[in-house]
Amino acid sequence: MSNLNGHQNGNGNGNSNPTKNGSIITKTQEAKVQSLSTFSAAPDQEKSVILRQSPTWSRGVTLTIIGVTVAGILWAALAKIEQVIPAKGELKPQGKVKEIQVPVSGVVREVLIKDGDTVTKDTVLLKLDSTASKAELASFRKIQNQVRQENQFYRALMNDEIQPSELSSKLLELKLPKDVAILAKNRMEIVAENQLYQVQVGEKVAGAVFRPEQVSRLQAANNESKTRSSAARLDIGQIQKQLTQNQVLLEDAKAQLIVDRQVLAEIKDRNDRTIEQSQRSLEIEKNILKDIEPLGAEGAIARYQINKQKQSVNDRQGEIIKQKADGLIEYNKQNQQMQNRMADIAKYQEENKRLQYAISQAQEKYYNTNAQTEKDVRDRMAENQKRISEVDSQLSKIVFENDKKLAELDSQISQAEQTLKYQELRAPVDGTVFDLQAAPGFVPKTGQAEALLKIVPKDHLIAEVDITNADIGFVRIGQKADIRIDSFPYSEYGDIKGEVIWVGTDALPPDEIHRDYRFPARIRLDQQSLRLKDANSGPLQSGMSVSANIKINENRTVLSLFTELFSKKVDTLKEIR
């Protein structure tokens, strides 16, 4: 853009003085008159024509030029123009285009939409054939139910929750393998035998029923055991009585030991305080003696008083020695009493150990009265329990394998249910269908890169534009913009107002379409349609190319254009060598 000042005068500064110009014209006219007068001295036959310029007309032209110039400068200084940055781009929805893929394999049975259809969220787009998926799901659930019932039976059997009368019907119902059925029967028989042994050793078994001869045998064995154990229980009672008495003496000695320790601590504390007080008194006496000895040397105090003070110091020292000796005697006496108390405690503790050992011997004698019979019974019980544990170990392995199978079945059922769920493909958002690839009988591949169809979200459209490196420094969020739709000529349909809502923080690299680095930006549109000639609204569509003018300065004056151009020319002159 070039600078034009609009002045027609010769000096180019736009300033002129009408008075001065008028005087110049007058002088010129006078000079012309003189020149013509000279020619008038020629022979009369040569008559001259004198041309005189009108001063009023000349002055008016000059004033007009000056006025126009001043008015132009004032207009350039006051008139506002918009400074804009151009940017190219296209319309895009605020939400990204949704590519619809089939998450599961199958055959397309029915397509319910076509290209260009407008759909709402959760609208069924197409359906897959679900016959095989339903059959597979039913098979998985049947197997799952069978395995769960087996595990419930095994756990109930290991927890002794199945009665012998129920075992046969359970085995027939579940149709377990022959080896597993044998394991279950053996375990039931071993458990029944152990219940009899438990009653023989005095343990209670809920729900156990025995024959009459078994009951008689149990009663005879119990009577014999009671007779032999009565004497042993009497010995145990006497020893326990001695143990109780000794325990009382032990607790009393421990309580007295606590008191002795407290008294010992009090004696030590009292002796320390007494000696400390005597030490302070001794220091005072020594300080007095130290203060009066120089006075005695000078004769200011009697020698008697000095000797008396020395005697006081000696007496105080002797008193401290006596206090220490008395305190030590008292402390040692109390300490000896405490040591004696500790010896008594040790004696009582040893007696406790002896009595406890005697009780254990008596108890052992008592237990031995029934030991042989009970030992035999319990040995048989232990052997049976070992056999039960072996059976339970085998059943636990079966349960563990079934649990693994159930976990796999849960996963397979979940996958089958998910497959059934995706037999109907639904729209994730409101929008318009385009690029439909599917048709009845189409077999899509799971996770294929190419989508079956795409949906343009029914969101407000925004303009995505690219801004050059040279202009990005002036663009800010919130700046106004004029967007022209390339499909609708601006001269006929106008533009759409907008506002910058986002500016990229990093430049996009060059590609096949764009040769230079550029910064992406987004502009929100104030309206989503253009007014057409027939007074109808022309809706905007995603993908339309646009040209945007981003307003970076709306207060720039016309004069600033000339001053900027002048500054550039001056800078150019500075660069010339």
From TrEMBL:
Residues 461-552 form the AprE-like beta-barrel domain. GO terms for cellular component: membrane. Residues 1-22 have a biased composition (Low complexity). This is Hemolysin secretion protein D. The lineage of its organism: Bacteria, Bacillati, Cyanobacteriota, Cyanophyceae, Oscillatoriophycideae. It is found in: Membrane. Keywords: Coiled coil, Membrane, Transmembrane, Transmembrane helix. Its main location: membrane. It is a single-pass membrane protein. It comes from Aphanothece hegewaldii CCALA 016. Belongs to the membrane fusion protein (MFP) (TC 8.A.1) family. Pfam families: Beta-barrel_AprE. The chain crosses the membrane at residues 60-78. Residues 331-365 form a coiled coil. Residues 1-23 are annotated as: Disordered.
